């Protein structure tokens, strides 16, 4: 009974610390991004719109900050127990290091489930809605072309601002070429998928001749294309905010077209191996508390945790382009830092045992 109480106490302490760190990071990120986007405010894109857009991106930010919050939260929670000599008392009472480590890993299972669900379902939907909401509100402004995706089909290049959850494309642009010469530029406020076909609305077409240009407008017209709503969604949505299912489909689509799918496979493996990544970071945090950071101040632990987290992230960011240059599988760009954390954690724990 006592051992179960100690397990629950350790798990609760670590879980609360992870939650507090996540809330703090999300709060800081919310304020910083809100202030950064304030400069984009226009008559149509108001301050309230910026606030709503920033709020919609919170699920994706939650997913992004999960590794950092897990690492620092474990350091803070275990560090507080070490500072209060609670870990020392547990060890003196005969509780093994592995049993304490298992108590720390238990709440991680709940964190992994929540993070995976957010990353697979909530974050892709909210991110897609946020981008389409901003594109719709900023339509016609000078900054509207910052977001979106590009696609080539035949003699035309397309740029799509965003796509809503109801398969409506916002801010459609088509650039048609005759060889190397641009001969037509077409813009539509929105494109709606109706009865198995795409319909352009509020169309403005500019015909570019050798000595002049002419402009015509139409309320609606059909758009003949092989692009489906599912494929358009994959093209427009940022790769890092897609679900694993979408990343898998898009990577196979790129491979079927003879194009490189390294970045898509990289994000796919990153999401799939997230539980392993988080477990390795918790192991490093525990090894630091039981080893070299046993008696230091809480601020020092947070500092070292931040350094380890940044090193982990930057190593992954460096290995990602290396996978493209040297041709090795993107899975190793994810596994190499993860295995390095496991080795470092086991080494430090063995020294402190």
TrEMBL record:
InterPro entries: LptG, LptG/LptF_permease. Coiled coil: none annotated. GO terms for biological process: lipopolysaccharide transport; transmembrane transport. The chain crosses the membrane at residues 12-35, 62-83, 104-123, 272-290, 302-319, 331-349. Keywords: Cell membrane, Membrane, Transmembrane, Transmembrane helix. It is a multi-pass membrane protein. It is found in: Cell membrane. GO terms for cellular component: ATP-binding cassette (ABC) transporter complex. Its main location: membrane. The keyword NAD does not apply. Part of the ABC transporter complex LptBFG involved in the translocation of lipopolysaccharide (LPS) from the inner membrane to the outer membrane. Belongs to the LptF/LptG family. Component of the lipopolysaccharide transport and assembly complex. The LptBFG transporter is composed of two ATP-binding proteins (LptB) and two transmembrane proteins (LptF and LptG). This is LPS export ABC transporter permease LptG. It comes from Kushneria phosphatilytica. The gene is lptG.
């Amino acid at each position: 009974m006592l051992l179960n109480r100690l397990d629950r106490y350790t798990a609760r302490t670590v879980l609360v610390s992870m939650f507090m760190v996540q809330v703090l990071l999300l709060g800081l990120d919310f304020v910083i991004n809100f202030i950064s986007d304030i400069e984009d405010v226009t008559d149509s894109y108001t301050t309230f719109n910026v606030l709503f857009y920033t709020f919609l991106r919170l699920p994706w930010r939650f997913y992004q900050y999960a590794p950092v919050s897990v690492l620092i939260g474990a350091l803070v929670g275990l560090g507080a127990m070490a500072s209060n000599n609670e870990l020392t008392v547990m060890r003196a009472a005969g509780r093994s290091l592995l049993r304490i480590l298992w108590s720390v890993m238990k709440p991680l299972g709940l964190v992994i489930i929540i993070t995976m669900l957010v990353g697979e379902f909530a974050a892709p939907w909210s991110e897609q809605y946020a981008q389409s909401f901003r594109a719709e509100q900023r339509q016609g402004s000078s900054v509207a072309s910052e977001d979106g995706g590009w696609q080539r089909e035949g003699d035309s290049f397309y740029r799509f601002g965003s796509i809503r959850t109801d398969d409506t494309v916002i801010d459609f642009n088509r650039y048609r070429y005759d060889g190397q010469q641009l001969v037509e530029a077409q813009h539509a406020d929105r494109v709606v998928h109706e009865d198995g076909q795409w319909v352009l609305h509020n169309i403005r077409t500019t015909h570019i001749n050798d000595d002049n240009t002419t402009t015509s407008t139409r309320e609606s017209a059909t758009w003949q294309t092989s692009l489906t709503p599912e494929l358009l969604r994959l093209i427009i949505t940022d790769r890092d905010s897609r679900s694993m299912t979408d990343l898998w489909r898009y990577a196979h689509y790129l491979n079927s077209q003879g194009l490189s799918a390294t970045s898509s496979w990289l994000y796919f493996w990153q999401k799939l191996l997230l539980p392993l990544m988080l477990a390795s970071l918790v192991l490093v945090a525990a090894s630091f508390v039981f080893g070299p950071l046993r008696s230091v101040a809480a601020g020092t632990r947070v500092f070292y945790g931040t350094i380890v987290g940044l090193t982990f992230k930057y190593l992954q960011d460096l290995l990602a382009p290396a996978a493209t240059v040297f041709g090795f599988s993107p899975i190793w760009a994810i596994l190499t830092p993860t295995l390095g954390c496991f080795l470092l954690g086991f080494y430090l724990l063995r020294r402190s045992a």
